[in-house]
Amino acid sequence: xxxxxxxxTGVLGxxxxxxxxxxxWEVSSASRSSGVDLVTGDGLDAALSGADAVIDATNxxxxxxxxxxxxxxxxxxxxxxAARREGVPHLVVVSIVGVDRLGGFGYYGAKVIQERLHLDGxxxxxxxxxxxxxxxxxxxxxxxxxxPVALVPRLRVQTVAARxxxxxxxxAAARGPQRGRLPDVAGPxxxxxxxxxxxxxxxxxxxxxxxxAAPVPGAVxxxxxxxxxxxxxxxxxxxxxxxxxxxxxxxPGGV
Length: 255
What we know:
Rossmann fold, six-stranded parallel β-sheet, three-stranded mixed β-sheet, 13 strands
């Protein structure tokens, strides 16, 4: 089976690529560094040629609605068009649990548009929504720490290991073309708040950073408190737990 991974240099994409190889699949990673620009479509046709499935794990580093919408609209349209021209039978696209419940948040609203364009497109697309990754707390700390203090929003989350999400994406690709959404993928829980996970990361690293939990205002805050970022009742819960994952990162080869 030949798989093309878009966003193969990111946290999720790297796991998708490595897990594909462990299954004995032929895998290639398409990114700007390899001459493929998903926003403009440059190099995309050649990258998709001969693929049995394409996994889109691309991302854009903005929370503003305008830039996010432009990115996901362009990439979805270009990917659908190139896949149709090259005869790719199946696209698998990763999304985020809660995007339809937090449409007022610019980035999430853009992901809703991405989902709709793919599901309405000519090439069969499977959408897999995952919760935030276990890696999210550490990533947030790297951006939100100023001196001895980190300001972390009070998001109620049920994080999942990026590697586990990658395996779920590959399982979807292995099942063959299927148009629609799969059950949500999340970690085994229990649900907790992001500042609590940030404190666990800090303690594990032996740091002395103080975490200040910041309430999320408005409708988005109410939705988050009501569980908008948590998996639906039929969601697939997969390990490791956050604590197991954090310990495993220090083991041979990391996680």
